[in-house]
Amino acid sequence: MQVIKEEVGEIAVIVAKETVETDILIKKVGKEANIADKEKAEAEIKAKETNAITESALATKARADAALSEALPALDKAKAAVGGLTPTDISDMTKIGNPV
């Protein structure tokens, strides 16, 4: 009977030690979970900010693309108009002077 009591006492000591270690581990995991939750919240805020910046950049790109598509036909017309000029034509025009 004494042997059983000693074994139960030893087991109780082991269980108490394991309980303390488990409590420490639970607290550590809880702290790490809190840190992870904070980092997740910060990441979500940054993601929203990034999405807003992306949307703004896409809108700016769309406006620039629209302006470019309006300007390209005028550029093509200007190239066509200037394309037939020779250096002699330009020299002749500079000699004419200002008619005003």
Report on the structure:
This protein has 100 residues and is mostly helical. It has one domain (2-74). The protein has helices at residues 2-83, 87-96. The termini are far apart.
Question: Nutshell version of this structure?
Answer:
With 100 residues, the protein is mostly helical. Helices cover 92% and strands 0% of the residues. It has one domain (2-74).
Topology diagram in text:
Layout: H1 2-83, H2 87-96
Number of structurally distinct domains: 1
The helix count comes to 2
The tally of strands reads 0
Rg, rounded, reads 40 Å
Basic shape: rod-shaped
> SSE order, as H and E?
HH
The largest β sheet comes out as:
none
- Please estimate the helix content: over 70%
Query: Which stretches of 5+ consecutive residues score pLDDT under 50?
Result: none
Task: Report the sheet-strand fraction.
Answer: under 5%
Query: What is the average per-residue confidence, as pLDDT, rounded to a whole number?
Result: 92
Distance between the termini: 129 Å
Structural class estimated from helices and strands = mainly alpha
Which characteristics define this entry?
100 residues, mainly alpha, 92% helix
